[in-house]
Specification:
200 residues; single chain; 3 helices; nine-stranded mixed β-sheet
Length: 200
Amino acid sequence: MKKLMMILCGAFAAFVLNGCFGGAPQAMRYYTVVLPEGKAVVEKPFAYRLFVKTATIDPAYRRNNIVYRESPYDFMFYNNSSWATRPEHLIEQSVAQRFEQSGIFQHVESALTAKPDFEFSIHVVALEEVIKPEGKFAHLTVQMGMRKPNGDSDLWAKRFDGSKEFADGDMRAFATIVSELLDGFTQEAVEEVLKVVETL
């Protein structure tokens, strides 16, 4: 009888530890950045090759789990909400694709196959959910720049920063807003880079 009671107690403890009273563990959800298809902004590409360098990101954001902040002094990660791959890679792929769709350059590539005429850099300064008394906001800050290989200074550079509220608790809406912010940044970059290339 004593042995039976020990077995039952052990089973009960396992039952509690497995979260049976609190419901099943929350499944991991993965999110990505998706931009709408861009339009060509020139009738004929310029005979240049653009190399989109591997994007970098501030060390605090260098992980897949989505970051959230409740104040300027804390920094936390969701356990069950993650980017499908490293966020700087998602942004790099989206920006490279947008420039390819723009038709400005004859070649746009993220892996070198020939010496490029221009190098395009992307640095993600911040990518996070910010929780404020008035609601939850998606916040994205990105630095972009273009220069000639081994150039001493940028031909073009700009820091983009934006935030927008999204529905409380809806991480798909968060990823959608991040995509919308990046879409606006990238479209502006395309327009300004075109002006630079036209003067060369």
